[in-house]
Amino acid sequence: MGYTDGFKYEKDFNLKLSRDIYNHLKELGFPVFMTRNDDSTISNYDRYDYLVNVLKDSGGKSLILSIHIDNERREGIEIIYSILKDKDDNIELYHKLNDITNVTTKTLPTDENKDYYAIQRIAPSEADVLVLEFGYDYVKATDEQITELANEIVDVIVDTLSDGEMMGYEDYVVQNGDNLYELSQRYDVTVDELKMINNMGTDQIDIGQILKVPRQKKKYYIVMKGDSLYSIAKKFDTTVDKIKDINNLISNKLSVNQKLLIPN
Questions:
Q1: How far apart are CA 108 and CA 51, in angstroms?
Q2: Which end of the chain offers a freer environment for a tag, N or C, measured as fewer CB atoms within 10 Å?
Q3: Is 133 helix (H, G, I), strand (E, B) or coil?
């Protein structure tokens, strides 16, 4: 349950803020995951396994965001970064996010060579970990204030930490024969998510239209009626031999709904 102030609880603030950040990042097209979506407990071992499974197929930069309230702090927000990282990596957040009072590290009282927070100690090396520690006055925040805070955090993180590899989407030019369902299968999202990312009110797409699609480490194509290896190679600016090689194909024969890995 954590810290409480009357009928408001620390856990409710943490979960509401996390969900709002998740939803905002999703709307922007980022691949984003939550270790838990309800009032449940997850062990450090299970958390580590979850992070490893999520990160193994992700491309580019990864950021792990940990949110909690420290009832020993009266107000404001602290950024807690790992002792293995440089303060300069987080200093822009300090200047851009309202109410940030400090950027610091925390170590174990029993071992100053280890980070205080378990999430920083167990995180896979390919991910950065950012801990946002809120003063207990935030327990009193309204839902509207929490949503506004979540949007600000997302905007600052995207503006500060994003680069070409971290961006969650890329441009795709609609080709003859494309439709939203086929594109959703290719980029492992739902039709509704594609429409949301592109602010679309209809399923209709036009040849030459530019759509935002999730950036993926691996790109797949679902074979449609009338497709050939040559037409697919031309669509993705690659060669028949490269497609055959990466998919271990011994002939040019294709089947409808066959899933092909497309060379980068």
A1: 22
A2: N
A3: strand
